[in-house]
Design a protein that fits this description.
Two copies of one chain form a homodimer.
Chain A lengths: L6 E6 L11 E6 L6 E5 L7 H10 L6 E5 L8 H19 L6 E5 L9 H13 L5 H10 L8 E7 L2 E8 L12 E6 L5 H14 L15 E6 L9 H21 L7 E9 L2 H12 L2 H8 L6 H7 L12 E4 L2 E5 L2 E2 L12 E7 L5 E8 L3 H8 L4
Parallel strand pairs in A: 4-5, 8-9, 10-14
Antiparallel strand pairs in A: 1-2, 2-4, 3-9, 6-7, 7-8, 10-15, 11-12, 11-14, 12-13
Helix pairs in contact in A: 1-2, 2-3, 5-6, 7-9
EC number (chains A, B): 2.3.1.35, 2.3.1.1
Pathway (chains A, B): Amino-acid biosynthesis; L-arginine biosynthesis; N(2)-acetyl-L-ornithine from L-glutamate: step 1/4; Amino-acid biosynthesis; L-arginine biosynthesis; L-ornithine and N-acetyl-L-glutamate from L-glutamate and N(2)-acetyl-L-ornithine (cyclic): step 1/1
Keywords (chains A, B): Acyltransferase, Amino-acid biosynthesis, Arginine biosynthesis, Autocatalytic cleavage, Cytoplasm, Multifunctional enzyme, Transferase
């Protein structure tokens, strides 16, 4: 958060989590620019902080983002929305700004009110700890963790400016977006419409192309803020690429740390008639539980790939489909190809290629295997 | 198979399965009627026997169905189709009919050719064992099992006639259809168009409304044959209800025996604006891995229900949604309802009700929980 100049951050434990771990993060843009853009979950059931932040971001400017773990504040009715409103107001008071310039993000269990006494009580400590140091940025990334085994940050430097980011998310990872919160900061001077375009392009090709378990959350939020404090006005293309690089780095970190996963599976659809076709096929494969179990068992069961492809509306002929698993073309033109015994699935990274033989588009989606540990983690406690 | 008069059946072990278990079933219609109807998987990647039987069924008449377990004969190219053709021809020779009147069904691993020497060699024993006894019917049901822990049959009797059925399927159960083979027989005298209508109506409300794991197979086939040997021409409504009763019974048996499942979950969507809306919402919930894990852990995590509902295009307002788990309204009007601790999830049967408050349609879909045993069973071996 603080790799880009013009930002202060903090991460503190205020008692929302019963474990006593850090659970409140604050990121403040010191300017001179306050331009900001955001994308939110496409789930129609949206948490209170998403409803709030969607309104706030309409103005295209932000002074601060406050994020809590330990509770999603989703499905909590009008009272939950009031809780979000109060949180933004209290942050605004402390920073001498208006609540309408403060975004709020929450993550954790759905359907439970936040302990507002603890949250509001802890805000003063949170504001008091704000700093522009690397440590303060790391603290913020730490405070948004839920089942993440480690904090996730990424930074890229370009000619005279920096784009940095932090993210959380370890389960419920699915397009549109993953179950994740992400805040990106840059000290480049970028007009709001350009921030918005860069962010939408980047998330569509990164966070929207990871699908750990097919489940879409109520709280997903990605916010990009520009302080302009470097004074550098970047080339729009270069800037968009920098934002995408940070998002891609964070997205891969999310998949690498997905709940209970033992494999990171790269699903590459080649020769699709369109990008939409490629995406539909890739997502259908990414959500096929039987295939995900097979990869967990290191079994190159390519029949399960074809049965997933067959459920889509994409353009293809069944007898033209080919499938490679880690370089071995186990299925050629809809029939048996090379010996499946040649596939080595012992590595954590699995590369699946499906050739639709219907065009020239290539689309890649990342997913995980389905493991006993995933079932354990998601059955053993409410999250 | 033999509960209805006019049918002979057999089930034998011909060596397709390395375990030596029964793997070849034969059902023969002795008439006087030979009317038949069928529905097939909506997967675009169809196994050779599906492609064959679709052609055969166009004539609306069948003399016999031959079914093997131990191999799906899917994604096996033109050679696989030739194997199916040869199987039908050999059965036709033995029964003194034409191959065009013999349907073929296969189930098992995708992407492997069938051991045709064993299959064809075993057909003579199979034909030789044909009998109209209850035991022969039970043998046929036994021979189509794959991971099913037991054979599945159902019979209903109506005024002067019988509808009977057998089915297999324990995983890859998803609408359109489940991974299943099912043969239904009746001694009622029913014209083919009426058979077809009864079968389509029944499967749409039974097999198409079970969704164990969201995966759709390449081989699903449901065949209904009428021998007319009772001489009874039934009331069309009563007959359709009888067929649906047999299908419903078999569908529940499939869900009860789904791979690794510890819960049977009845998802009832009430007050939907349309049947299509109710189905979309129910299927979205049935495919939510996080919720299915929660039920495995007996955790009434209703937030996961709402986040699944929110991914659909059905008509609803988020703040009008209510959810009951085993009779406890844990979510009312989009917010926190009764204490989730009141839910007792210890029973194998879980009843989930989602009130969309958008109309008056009710739709029910059955699914299972997602368990460590499911992952184990589907990772530990190729099927």
């Amino acid at each position: 958060m603080t790799a880009a100049a013009g930002f202060r951050a903090s991460g503190t434990a205020v008692g929302i989590k019963s474990s006593g771990a850090a659970d409140l993060a604050l990121v403040v843009n010191e300017g001179p620019s306050r331009a900001a853009a955001a994308v939110f979950t496409s789930n129609r059931v949206k948490a209170a902080p998403v409803l709030w932040s969607e309104q706030v971001l309409k103005a295209g400017e932000l002074d601060a983002v406050v994020l809590n773990s330990g509770g999603a504040n989703a499905c909590t009715g009008p009272e939950g929305f009031q809780d979000t409103h109060k949180t933004a107001e209290r942050v605004a008071e402390a920073l001498d700004t208006s609540a309408a310039r403060v975004a709020v993000c929450s993550t954790g269990l759905i359907g439970v009110r936040l302990p507002m006494d603890k949250l509001l009580g802890g805000l003063f400590a949170s504001v008091g700890s704000l700093a522009a140091t690397a440590e303060a940025g790391a603290d913020a990334a730490e405070a948004i963790r839920t089942t993440d085994t480690h904090a996730k940050t990424a930074v890229v430097e370009r000619s005279g400016y920096v784009v940095g980011g932090m993210a959380k998310g370890a389960g419920m990872l699915a397009p549109g977006l993953a179950t994740m919160l992400c805040v990106l900061t840059t000290d480049a001077e970028v007009p709001q419409p350009e921030l918005d375009a860069a962010l939408r392009g980047a998330t569509a090709r990164t966070f929207d192309r990871i699908d750990s378990d097919g489940c879409m959350s109520t709280n997903d939020t990605v916010i990009l803020m520009s302080s302009g404090s470097s004074g550098v006005v970047p080339d729009p293309c270069e800037f968009a690429q920098a934002v995408e690089a940070v998002c891609a780095d964070l997205a891969r970190q999310l998949i690498a740390d997905a709940e209970g996963a033992s494999k990171e599976i790269e699903i590459e659809i080649v020769n699709a008639a369109s990008e939409a076709d490629g995406l539909e096929v890739a997502r259908s494969i990414a959500r096929n539980n039987l295939l995900k179990c097979a990869f967990y068992g290191e079994d190159p069961n390519w029949g399960r790939v074809l049965s997933a492809v067959g459920t889509t509306r994409a353009k293809f002929q069944p007898d033209e489909l080919s499938v490679a698993i880690n370089g071995v073309w186990v299925c050629r033109r809809g029939g048996v190809g090379e010996d499946r015994e040649l596939c080595d699935l012992s590595d954590r990274h699995v590369h699946l290629v499906v050739d639709l033989a219907a065009g020239s588009e290539t689309v890649t989606v990342w997913t995980n295997d389905l493991t006993k540990e995933y079932v354990h983690e998601n059955s053993a406690y409410s999250s």
